[in-house]
Write a structure and sequence with these properties.
Helix content is 68%, strand content 0%. It is mainly α and 73 residues long. The protein has one domain. The protein starts with a helix and ends in a 13-residue tail after the last helix.
Length: 73
């Protein structure tokens, strides 16, 4: 797993732990909010078709043993 993916996984774990300490929050809602924000951020530097392609690729590989890391050229 690349450093970026390991860092992102750790950030999500820490964010979920923080959400679990607040009765007004849930990890599921937090993850939905994060996904929306991440998609907006990606759309600022990539076209809709590129973002959609990336999301579809990730969905197609859910459950794979290893995270597929692609880097732009």
């Amino acid at each position: 797993m690349s450093g970026e993916y390991a860092t992102a996984a750790a950030l999500l774990d820490n964010a979920c732990k923080a959400a679990e300490t607040d009765p007004a929050m849930s990890c599921d809602t937090l993850f939905n909010a994060l996904l929306g924000i991440l998609l907006q951020k990606q759309a600022q530097s990539h076209g809709k078709a590129d973002v959609l392609s990336f999301v579809e690729f990730q969905l197609d590989h859910l459950g794979d043993d290893e995270v597929v890391v692609t880097r732009g050229c």
